[in-house]
Amino acid sequence: MSGQASGDLRRGLPQVERLARALAAELPAAPGWALRQAARAAVAQARRALEAGQPAPDFAALARVHALALARPRPAQVVNATGVVLHTNLGRAPLAPGAAQAAAQAAAHYSDVELELHSGGRGQRLAAIEALLCALSGARGALAVNNNAAALLLCLAGLARGREVVVSRGELVEIGGEFRVGEIAAQAGVRLVEVGATNRTHLRDYARAIGPHTGALLKVHRSNFEQRGFVAEAPLSDLARLARQARPRLPVVEDLGSGTLVDLRANGLPAESFAPARLTGGADLVCFSGDKLLGGPQAGLILVREAEVARRLRRHPLARALRLGKLPLAALDWTLRALAEGRSAELPVLAQLLAPAAQVAERAQALAARLAGGAGVAGAGFAVDVAETRAPAGGGSLPGFDLPSFAVRLRPAEADAGGGGAGRLAAALRRGRPPVIPRLAEGAVLLDARTLLPGDEERIAAALRAAIGRN
Ligand SMILES: *Cc1c(COP(=O)(O)O)cnc(C)c1O
To answer: Residues near 172 by Cβ (< 8 Å), separated by ≥ 6?
Structure first.
């Protein structure tokens, strides 16, 4: 761009300071840093628009949106009325109140995170977690890192750096948020050898790929999609036999994605999600997320068949870079104790997944009656009833697995059909305090009862009253 043109462009832009002062008059409660930052962002956005030859936007309106967003603490509490138990955009697993308290305690006080109280010497940060994970799974070694992506990175780097790792083409998954197995492998310094076809991979495909440079066999759970039709994969037990026969013997690593430590197969959960069974089924290392099906804090859990392998991973330089903070550590400790002591019903994720349909229906009926009675919904032109829905376990956890559920349905009056009334109501609910996140379906707002936490009914009623006032 010539100097002349960019000068013209700048003349079209307001000054950051002037814009921030104008905003301050409009939003007296917003802190100064947020106003200046919002003004800066609005001017930058406007500059990009002008440079792209688009008409000048409404600076003041842009800056106001930025300022209001910046002035709110984040992340802040929202009500999950989507019916998606493990919602990636809503922070996946909510902690049990006890786990949240444990994290808050560790946060606000000094703690014995790395102190051995009986000897006064330096303590192992992960000692209790490892014991709990081993007790729950039968693994001989275990560790926990920052998240499951980190767990996979550490497993691959620790076991097979500079070597080849054999994986099925049907399992080269991309998880939301830019996680690709191939890219993690590259960062771990291993070369992926892709075998089979997208839809079918046989044991012989793995067998043919094993050579002098092979360091491990990798199995990855297809967490966010399903394959149906003409498909085949080599069972874990066959992979394990192949790996045991190789010379030298190869480890089988499984990225399970979403795993539990309590056996919920009888409750209809997919069999492969029970992590301990993957070890007995032949995997040497299994990694999975702490904040998916497990129902704990963000963490990457690694179960290891051999204690020595776990020790090696713990001493790996990456382990320090990927280590779990003391807040999630405390929450994980509480969560694993709850599981080990038979208190899994205290974990919100498991309570939601295991709630009988009749109980969810009852909750939806009660909420519908409350909203129809008190929130002025009918007067605002919405019909209230209860609809049968399906509640998916989660976007990136258990594809194709959903549960019968029930939702309060708010339908705009006939006159509004196709008029976007449901979308406007949903947007108004998102502006609630706390925001309520519903699902939209067939021109109606659905408030699914399966994912509501204790006290959410009150929050929904308040958000709805406010939304209808503004809608
Ligand atoms: C979710 C998932 C991951 C990433 O786990 P994070 O805890 O989000 O890092 C990796 N692999 C699979 C198969 C997953 O499902």
So the answer is: 180, 181, 182, 192, 194, 220
